[in-house]
From TrEMBL:
<dbReference type="InterPro" id="IPR043137">
    <property type="entry name" value="GGT_ssub_C"/>
</dbReference>
<dbReference type="InterPro" id="IPR029055">
    <property type="entry name" value="Ntn_hydrolases_N"/>
</dbReference>
<dbReference type="InterPro" id="IPR052896">
    <property type="entry name" value="GGT-like_enzyme"/>
</dbReference>
<dbReference type="Pfam" id="PF01019">
    <property type="entry name" value="G_glu_transpept"/>
</dbReference>
<protein>
    <submittedName>
        <fullName>Gamma-glutamyltransferase family protein</fullName>
    </submittedName>
</protein>
């Protein structure tokens, strides 16, 4: 790897990387990570650990995900990478015409209109069916116990919960939202750090999903309750939409960078934005006549990273949608060397003004798992925008997501709303391999921060030679819109000023949640030893064995 000896690198790491060999689970909440590790110790594999961790996260970090959200996974199993898209489509009764009749010109953020079919329970069931060793009742047992008996809320979760409560109290009113407040703010407020919280309805729902292999959620008693709730308040989601849903196994897409293969899921996810940006950087730096990266100050490299991500989003935000509604050749075109070369030629010494608006925020959880046999999982799930739609199916703990908010109501936009269509999706798991051998899973959660986070941690590791923990510890930037860029308080001031001199409009943001929260597990190709990092911006750990 390239070594940089500049005034800005390496960034000081706040924690040391974790090493082990028999298994690892890295995620943003310690109880969930321990639940996954427990499955490995019971004889389960990396997929068993991922399912248990994911289900547990819906209980112990409900401000970022839930049973009523979507999920995606990259699974390295038996020397092959598998992709699972478990994002749900718009209900059949939801259309542009229906919303025009209501006088809407853009998708609402809350309520029933942005609710699409949830895919997370189907992801757990499908992963278990294909790859797991342990029964779903065993895998969901820790989550059920925490929901039924309670747990002490962790600090970062409490903080995001309190922020979300203030937003929901101001934004959602009416009888249909009452169940959300009864479930997540039973004392009229969000729980404080260390406060005991439980959700019996959540436990009953998880038990039903476990005992029926997910059938109750899509074709049984839970589906009926979701349908009745939707009909009661004029929603569009129906039991028929739930019954028709199945996750989809897809072929991951990849790009070559610095001798590694970087893997993402294809659209409707935004993972190709990361690959596009990496391609642009590689073209600009390797084919642009640079005298050598090691001779440059880091401001030139950071400037190019910002320009590359803006250019990638410029086309990604316009092109990405349900692949059934995309030109079949579009993904290949966006990932082509010719496209990267054209975009790289647009990068100069000053900040560009891209033709994109401001992407909204979101709420997501990510996890990475590995076992001692070489299997690994990169998994992500989300309710979008903290708790999602503000709707909770009464008595169930099912907080319904608002993923449909990313649909466009412009009929000429590729991501225009249509019945049964999946929208542009922000949550993206990543995976790294080299020479056909797994290196490991990585991910950075946080809506449209995710491709930016993927880009930055990959550059930290593959270009600057940092280990997973040091890469996650490094201060981040976040492109917001136009030339506006948010930076963390720890961002080097000298670097910030150099970027301002290049035309970037930098603003220090003290909310660490804006910059994503990542997890990484790497496997040493020779020894098989695992190395993990977990983001200091969350309450996570890398539980190891």
């Amino acid at each position: 790897m390239t070594h940089y000896d500049t005034q800005y690198y390496p960034y000081p790491s706040r924690r040391t990387a974790v090493y082990a060999k028999r298994g690892m689970v890295a995620t943003s909440q310690h109880l969930a990570a321990q639940a996954g590790l427990e499955m490995l110790k019971q004889g389960g594999n990396a997929v068993d650990a991922a399912i248990a961790t994911a289900a547990c996260l819906t209980v112990v970090e409900p401000s970022s995900n839930g049973i009523g959200g979507d999920a995606f996974a990259l699974v390295w199993m038996k020397d092959r990478l598998h992709g699972l898209n478990s994002s749900g489509p718009a209900p059949q009764g939801l259309s542009l015409e229906a919303l025009r009749e209501q006088g809407l010109t853009e998708m609402p953020m809350y309520g029933w209109t942005p609710v699409t079919v949830p895919g997370a329970p189907a992801a757990w069931a499908e992963l278990a069916r294909r790859f797991a060793r342990l029964p779903l009742t065993t895998l969901l047992a820790p989550a059920i116990a925490y929901a039924e008996e309670g747990y002490a809320v962790s600090p970062t979760t409490s903080r995001s919960w309190q922020t979300a409560f203030a937003e929901y109290r101001a934004a959602v009113q009416g009888e249909q939202y009452q169940s959300w407040f009864e479930t997540f703010a039973p004392q009229g407020r969000a729980p404080a750090p260390g406060e005991w919280w439980r959700s019996p309805g959540h436990a009953a729902t998880l038990r039903s999903i476990a005992e029926t292999g997910g059938e109750s959620f899509y074709r049984g008693e839970l589906a009926g309750r979701i349908d009745a709730y939707s009909r009661q308040y004029g929603g569009y989601l129906r039991a028929e939409d739930l019954a028709a849903y199945t996750p989809e196994w897809v072929d991951p897409v990849s790009g070559s960078y610095r001798g590694y293969d970087v893997w993402e899921l294809p659209p409707n996810g935004q993972g190709i934005v990361t690959l596009m940006a990496l391609n642009i950087l590689q073209q600009r730096e390797d084919g642009g006549g640079n005298s050598g990266l090691e001779d440059e100050l880091v401001d030139a490299r950071t400037h190019r990273e910002l320009e590359a991500i803006k250019l990638a989003f410029e086309d990604g935000l316009w092109s990405i949608t349900d692949p059934r509604h995309m030109d079949e050749a579009r993904v290949a075109e966006l990932l082509s060397a010719a496209y990267a070369s054209r975009q790289a030629a647009r990068i100069g010494d000053q900040a560009l003004l891209p033709h994109t608006g401001k992407p909204p925020g979101g709420g997501t959880v990510y996890l990475a798992t590995a076992d001692g046999e070489g299997n690994m999982v990169s998994y992500i799930q989300s309710n979008y925008m903290e708790f999602g739609s503000g709707l909770v199916v009464p008595g169930t703990g099912i907080g319904l997501h608002n993923r449909g908010h990313t649909f466009s109501l412009d009929p000429n936009h590729p991501n225009a709303l249509a019945p049964g269509k999946r929208t542009y999706h922000t949550i993206i798991p990543g995976f790294l391999s080299r020479g056909g051998r797994a290196i490991g899973p990585f991910g950075v959660m946080g809506a449209f921060m995710q491709p930016q986070g993927h880009l930055q941690v990959l550059r930290q590791m593959l270009d600057y030679g940092l280990n997973p923990q040091a890469a996650l510890d490094a201060p981040r930037w976040k492109w917001e819109q136009g030339r506006k860029v948010l930076i963390e308080p720890s961002f080097p001031e000298q670097l910030a000023q150099a970027l301002r001199d290049r035309g970037h409009e930098l603003e220090v943001a003290h909310n660490s949640g804006l910059f994503g929260r990542g997890q990484i597990i790497w496997r040493d190709e020779d020894s098989g030893v695992l190395c993990a990092g977990t983001d200091p911006r969350c309450d996570g750990v890398a539980a190891s064995w």
